[in-house]
């Protein structure tokens, strides 16, 4: 209990304890005093003078202030202005489900729904770092109001934000588009066996058509953009940003082209196609291997095997896989991409100054890209991470989902594009960190 | 000559001048007299049964008689003039070249486990902890720099200066050279697995236990014409033999245990027999792996000492084993390397007249090398062929996890013989010693060779062109035969007041083609010349030049054939019965019929100044140039690969498809042939300084400082390709690849070693502290690295097309303008400190107890970085060595 002392208190004396409330005229016990000498005497005089009677007023501690409301405003991303305008949602996204949870917690989310102005008022939560998820999927009628050719299917976001009392936080949610053929599964984490090392040949990539019309893979380009996830001494993140932060396209060395001359390899809406490094049954070759002998396509290298039942992609890049089994994807950081059917000889080819070997890279313009994903390993690198694997204009944020796969534990995971609950399509907000999750390998089947 | 214990005269001691023939035996009053041809600095050596050998170095003025009193002691530690380091002013017997002489007491004080530890007393040798850690080779006067190699080939690593130098340093054990020429225990650089082996370098010195050594002479300079098949220097090793008081010696430290037993006695009137046995074991990585190195060694020596005929016969055997068993951390991974050897040698000396003699030395050595290595491997599915001859055949498909095991079994053999006539004479006021000799040697390997299941090869980098490994027998490799003739004369005399010692000789070395002594493949004439003058009693100046030669190893003279497996048809259907692979095997003989002997031109100058009592300052400058050193060149050529088209799809039929003939097409595949050639040059220059400060009697302490600076330049003629050659090889879209002229690699090292010896003869106590500092160690490559540094390009047909420097910037060469990588920027190694301490104390009954500690204050920096960090495996060793006589001294 605090006490208001009256009377002199020597500076060097420490007073611990206090007079308790007592009836007038009754002295309380001598308070414990630190210090000595004259200070003590002075205090004793003060105490005696004060008498500790009728002097104190005990004030109860003030109650904590009530938590203030936090207002979240859900607004559409500027890239989706056309859809927002058609839906008259420029001011905010109504009916969006907003889920929040303390970032340090693994408990369940608290859910809210935005009002007609796209706002959500949250009360009863303490301030702090929060994991925030937002999604709003269009109804059939809403999709009918979109301009012709606009493939927006909804809006989705995952982010971490600081929420504090009285704050108004704006959540800019990008649209999820049903744009056609996208990368639906990436499975290139090596299969590691104790004592033997990594089996590097059992990877695959899966494509899915999330659009409304049949797509044709003939001549499309499948590749991996060159990137670097950590800030090496040489080259560093700044030096390579001319290619890893180029909003006009992606640069890479690994590139393959689908066979066919026009309409030989269709993918209907909802269809999936698997491209394997080796389209064989890997189960006899390594623990943790799976059967990819029914893959739809495979890469071919100078020392691997060729499944005659599976069409081969043609290597049109500058660098074949060092394992000799055709193209594969990096398992520390990977930016796979799918591009339109192009003549690869027309691609810009440029020597990069940060390569001591004088290597060149090919550029695929952003306008020719059909889909790009960005993945980073979950490994705790001893160096700082680069700010981006690819320009945010192409993919906003990489998904940190590439993990070691241990054959002994059978916990071999791949990276899947998310299917929003209750929706027939996969999510594509051009944000890999939002659009992808890890899960068991399912080549040829969507979640 | 008196006994230090009671000053009584010692009769029957043999006294000689080191480096000179003959000697005298002390009479009943311990007296002796030696006649010298000229004034100068001499080392007097005395030996007597039951006593430790003693040496005294003194300066003798010309035309004077010098009286000295020598003392001997039953226990060496009681000798007042005990020397426990190498004598920087000593000379090997019969040699004038710069030498380090290491006597028995210095050997014992080193507490070394093998000869390699003893050789640390030589200037410029880095200290290492005692034990059987790893292969121990001795590379005289060379800096550890590696060659540039050729990326994209099987020999990307290139040769190294130290492997060349250790290969070129000869070790002579009891008069017979040891050889490593037929050691083939190697999987080469293509093999992904490996094991410890000295193949390609010098003899593994672990086979020679230090506890059995009597004396070691290291000729660092130019050896006389008596010695051949070397480019660096000679290590002359004498093992203990004769009437040796039986003793047992035990060593123990945290990683090494060792037991030695030795003894010798008279067997009748004219015969002496000696037997020695040694067993040692070192744990190589305690706490990390169960890897063990061990040695067994034994020798029986017999001497028949008649009036004119002396015959020394030795039978010795050894086993060196390095074993890395399987561990739970690395299942199925293990390796073992076991070298066994037996050698029977004999030296017979027959006196001719009063001073001349003829000596016949012969030896037969059998070695048995059994190594294996095993590790699990994992690979993807790939086409495979096991064809051992050229041609096309159906292959199969392999892949998955397997345990690769390869056995390498070699049986090197050597037959050696030398006949030498020595004829001293005195005329013209000088002493002449003429030596005339002939030497014959034949070496071969009779082993089963490299053996493995070809379908589970240790190498997995099959890229569709580079062939799978194939087994190889060693016993089909032709033997190597060498003969040599030499003439050597040494003249010692006086010119005015200046003593002059001249040794001149010549040697003819012949390398024969095939078995015994067939046609001559290569021959060399090698003159040797040494001059030493003693202008003042305490000053010696010498200079020498010479040419030496070294035969290439059998591995280079007869390299294994190179296999290429080209995939012609690749049909991996889902049904195994419907699969088909067709591959073509091509074989290229890598042998180089023009491969010749390596040649070394050596020159040195030096001076020694004595001062005070036992003080000495010696400096030597040298320049060595090895030409025609053997290394492997990657020679581009091409192969044609046919491509077959399928005749008809057989999916679902249960059978493999047919292919259309003729082939649907073909492509050109550039390949590299790894051919041994005389394309390397190693140039070394250096300076060696030894300073011995006279004993400070008040504190009974002596200090010796050695400093050695060596600079080496290694250059390999020929071209170097980029590390992207594999891409060029496999991608038909790439029409050509750049090549560069080979780079030059330079390195230098400065090493300073200080030894502080505190000796208390009365107590029989010696304390030796050694401090070694690597003052400077650098390495760098010299070669162009910019995009205009390429010298030309190689086509897919393997043709080398040079491009003039002025044309390299033209647009048509844009694809070739890539920087060259792989060069070492100038780097400086960290300053490295090494410490060791030995304390030896004599015990009753001629015993001895020694304590040693190595690297007690260990730290090392990072190469190219200023930071100091502890070593990963700090080799801090503490140990004890106990010597106990078996019988009471007489």
- How many strands, what sense, and barrel or not for the largest sheet of chain B? 22 strands, antiparallel, barrel
Largest interface: A-B, 35 and 39 residues
Oligomer: heterodimer
CATH architecture of chain B: Beta Barrel
Q: Which spans of chain B have pLDDT < 50 for at least 5 consecutive residues? A: 149-157
Number of domains of chain A: 3
Proportion in helices of chain B: under 10%
Q: Per the principal axes of the C-alpha atoms, what is the gross shape of chain A?
A: globular
Explain what you see.
The complex is a heterodimer of chains A (447) and B (890). In chain A, strand 4 and strand 5 form a beta hairpin. Chain A starts with 14 loop residues before the first strand and ends in a 7-residue tail after the last strand. In chain A, 8% of the residues lie in helices and 32% in strands. Chain A has 5 helices and 31 strands. Chain A is mainly beta. Chain A folds into 3 domains: 63 residues, no CATH class; 108 residues, Immunoglobulins (Immunoglobulin-like, Sandwich); 260 residues, no CATH class. The radius of gyration of chain A is 32 Å and the shape is globular. In chain A, strands 11, 14, 16, 17, 19, 20, 21, 23, 24, 25, 26, 30 and 31 form a 13-stranded mixed beta sheet that branches. In chain A, strands 5-4-7-8-10 form a 5-stranded antiparallel beta sheet, with no helix packed on it. Chain B is mainly beta and 890 residues long. Chain B has one domain: TonB-dependent receptor, beta-barrel domain (Maltoporin, Chain A, Beta Barrel), CATH 2.40.170. Chain B is 3% helix and 53% strand. In chain B, the strands form 7 sheets. Chain B has a 22-stranded antiparallel β-barrel. In chain B, strands 7-10-11-8-9 form a 5-stranded mixed beta sheet. Chain B is elongated. Chains A and B meet through strand 13 of A and strand 18, strand 20 and strand 28 of B.
């Amino acid at each position: 209990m605090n006490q208001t002392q009256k009377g002199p208190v020597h500076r060097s004396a420490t007073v611990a304890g206090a007079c308790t409330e007592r009836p007038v005229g009754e002295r309380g016990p001598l308070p414990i005093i630190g210090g000595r000498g004259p200070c003590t005497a002075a205090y004793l005089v003060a105490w005696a003078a004060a008498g500790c009677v009728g002097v104190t007023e005990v004030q109860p501690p003030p109650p904590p202030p009530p938590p203030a409301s936090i207002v979240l405003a859900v607004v559409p991303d500027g890239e989706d202005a056309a859809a927002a305008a058609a839906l008259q949602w420029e001011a905010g996204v109504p009916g969006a489900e907003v889920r929040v949870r303390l970032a340090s917690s693994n408990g369940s989310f608290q859910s809210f729904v935005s009002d007609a102005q796209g706002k959500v008022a949250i009360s009863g939560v303490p301030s702090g770092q929060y994991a925030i998820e937002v999604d709003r999927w269009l109804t059939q009628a809403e999709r009918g109001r979109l301009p012709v050719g606009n493939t927006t299917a909804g809006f989705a976001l995952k982010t971490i934000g600081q929420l504090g009392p009285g704050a108004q936080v704006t959540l800019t949610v990008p649209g999820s588009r049903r744009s056609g053929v996208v990368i639906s599964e990436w499975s290139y984490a090596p299969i590691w066996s104790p004592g033997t090392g990594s089996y590097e040949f059992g990877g695959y990539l899966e494509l899915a058509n999330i659009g409304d019309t049949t797509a044709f893979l003939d001549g499309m380009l499948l590749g991996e953009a060159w990137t670097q996830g950590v800030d090496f001494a040489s080259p560093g993140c700044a030096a390579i940003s001319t290619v890893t932060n180029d909003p006009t396209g992606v640069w890479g060395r690994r590139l393959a082209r689908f066979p066919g001359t026009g309409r030989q390899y269709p993918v209907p809406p909802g269809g999936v196609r698997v491209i394997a490094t080796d389209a064989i049954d890997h189960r006899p070759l390594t623990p943790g291997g799976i059967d990819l002998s029914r893959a739809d396509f495979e890469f071919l290298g100078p020392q691997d095997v060729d499944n005659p039942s599976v069409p081969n992609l043609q290597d049109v890049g500058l660098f074949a896989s060092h394992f000799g089994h055709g193209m594969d994807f990096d398992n520390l950081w990977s930016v796979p991409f799918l591009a339109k059917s192009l003549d690869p000889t027309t691609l810009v080819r440029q020597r990069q100054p940060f390569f001591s070997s004088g290597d060149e890279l090919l550029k695929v313009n952003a306008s020719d890209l059909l889909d790009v994903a960005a993945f980073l390993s979950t490994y705790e690198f001893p160096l700082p991470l680069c700010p981006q694997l690819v320009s945010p204009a192409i993919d906003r944020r990489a998904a940190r989902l590439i993990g070691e796969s241990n054959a002994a534990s059978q916990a071999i995971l791949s990276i899947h594009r998310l299917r929003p609950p209750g929706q027939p399509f996969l999510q594509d907000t051009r944000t890999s960190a939002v659009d992808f999750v890890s899960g068991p390998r399912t080549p040829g089947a969507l979640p | 000559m008196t006994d230090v214990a009671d000053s009584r005269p010692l009769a029957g001691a043999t006294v000689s001048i080191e480096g000179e023939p003959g000697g005298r035996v002390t009479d009943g009053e311990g007296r002796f007299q030696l006649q010298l041809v000229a004034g100068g600095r001499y080392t007097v050596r005395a030996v007597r049964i039951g006593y430790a050998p003693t040496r005294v170095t003194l300066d003798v003025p010309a035309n004077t008689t010098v009286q000295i009193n020598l003392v001997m002691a039953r226990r060496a530690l009681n000798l007042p003039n005990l020397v426990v380091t190498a004598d920087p002013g000593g000379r090997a017997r019969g040699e004038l070249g710069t030498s380090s002489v290491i006597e028995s007491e210095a050997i014992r004080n080193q507490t070394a486990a093998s000869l390699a530890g003893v050789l640390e007393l030589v200037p410029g040798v880095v200290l290492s902890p005692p034990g059987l850690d790893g292969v121990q080779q001795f590379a005289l006067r060379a800096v550890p720099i590696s060659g540039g190699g050729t990326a994209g080939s099987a020999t990307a690593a290139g040769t190294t200066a130290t492997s060349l130098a250790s290969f070129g340093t000869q070790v002579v054990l009891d008069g017979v050279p040891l050889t490593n020429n037929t050691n083939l225990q190697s999987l080469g650089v293509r093999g992904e697995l490996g094991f410890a082996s000295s193949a390609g370098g010098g003899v593994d010195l672990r086979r020679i236990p230090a506890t059995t050594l009597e004396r070691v002479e290291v000729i660092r300079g130019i050896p006389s014409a008596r010695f051949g098949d070397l480019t660096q220097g000679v290590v002359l090793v004498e093992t203990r033999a004769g009437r040796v008081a039986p003793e047992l010696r035990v060593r123990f430290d945290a990683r090494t245990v060792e037991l030695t037993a030795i003894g010798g006695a008279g067997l009748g009137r004219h015969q002496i027999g000696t037997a020695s046995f040694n067993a040692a074991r070192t744990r190589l990585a305690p706490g990390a792996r169960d890897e063990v190195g061990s040695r067994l060694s034994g020798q029986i020596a017999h001497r028949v000492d008649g009036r004119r005929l002396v015959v020394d016969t030795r039978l010795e055997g050894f086993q060196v084993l390095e074993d890395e068993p399987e561990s739970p951390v690395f299942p199925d991974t293990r390796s073992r390397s076991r070298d066994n050897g037996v050698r029977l040698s004999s030296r017979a000396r027959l006196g001719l007249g009063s001073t001349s003699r003829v000596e016949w030395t012969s030896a037969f050595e059998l070695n048995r090398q059994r190594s294996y290595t095993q590790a699990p491997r994992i690979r993807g599915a790939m086409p495979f062929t096991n064809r051992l001859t050229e041609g096309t055949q159906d292959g199969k498909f392999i892949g998955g996890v397997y345990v690769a095991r390869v056995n390498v079994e070699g049986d090197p053999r050597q037959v050696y013989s030398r006949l030498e006539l020595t004829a001293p004479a005195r005329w013209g006021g000088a002493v002449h010693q003429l030596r005339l000799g002939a030497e014959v040697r034949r070496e071969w390997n009779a082993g089963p060779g490299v053996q493995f299941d070809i379908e589970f090869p240790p190498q997995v980098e099959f890229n569709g062109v580079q062939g799978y490994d194939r087994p190889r027998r060693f016993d089909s490799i032709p033997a190597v035969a060498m003969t040599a003739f030499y003439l050597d004369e040494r003249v010692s005399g006086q010119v005015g007041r200046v003593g002059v010692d001249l040794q001149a000789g010549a040697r003819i070395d012949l390398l024969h083609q095939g078995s015994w002594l067939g046609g001559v493949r290569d021959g060399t004439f090698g003159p040797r010349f040494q001059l030493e003058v003693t202008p003042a009693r305490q000053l010696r100046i010498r200079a020498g030049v010479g040419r030496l030669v070294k035969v290439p190893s059998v591995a280079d003279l007869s390299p294994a054939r190179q296999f290429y497996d080209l995939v012609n048809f690749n049909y991996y259907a889902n049904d195994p019965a419907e699969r088909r692979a067709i591959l073509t095997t091509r074989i290229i003989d890598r042998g180089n019929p023009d491969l010749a002997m390596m040649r070394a031109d050596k020159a040195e100058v030096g001076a020694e100044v004595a001062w005070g009592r036992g003080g000495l300052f010696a400096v030597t400058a040298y320049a060595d140039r090895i030409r025609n050193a053997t290394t492997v060149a990657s020679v581009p050529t091409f192969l044609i690969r046919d491509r077959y088209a399928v005749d008809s799809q057989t999916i679902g039929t249960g059978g493999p498809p047919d292919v259309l003939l003729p082939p649907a097409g073909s492509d050109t595949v550039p390949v590299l042939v790894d051919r041994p050639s005389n394309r390397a040059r190693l140039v070394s220059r250096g300076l060696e300084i030894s300073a011995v400060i006279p004993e400070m009697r008040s504190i009974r302490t002596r200090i010796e400082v050695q400093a050695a600076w060596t600079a080496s330049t290694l250059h390999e003629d020929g071209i170097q390709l980029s590390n992207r050659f594999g891409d060029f090889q496999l991608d038909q879209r790439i029409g050509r690849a750049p090549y560069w002229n080979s780079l030059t690699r330079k390195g230098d090292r400065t090493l300073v070693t200080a030894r502080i010896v505190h000796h208390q003869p009365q107590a029989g106590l010696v304390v030796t502290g050694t401090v070694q500092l690597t003052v400077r160690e650098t390495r760098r490559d010299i070669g162009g690295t910019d995009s205009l540094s390429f010298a030309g390009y190689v086509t897919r047909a393997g043709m080398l097309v040079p491009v003039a420097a002025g044309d390299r910037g033209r647009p048509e060469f844009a694809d070739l303008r890539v920087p060259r990588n792989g060069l070492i920027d100038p780097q400086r190694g960290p300053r490295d400190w090494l410490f060791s301490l030995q304390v030896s104390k004599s015990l009753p009954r001629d015993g001895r107890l020694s304590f040693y500690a190595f690297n007690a204050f260990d730290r090392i920096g990072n190469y190219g970085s200023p930071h100091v960090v502890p070593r990963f495996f700090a080799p801090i060793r503490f140990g004890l060595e106990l010597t106990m006589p078996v019988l009471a001294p007489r």
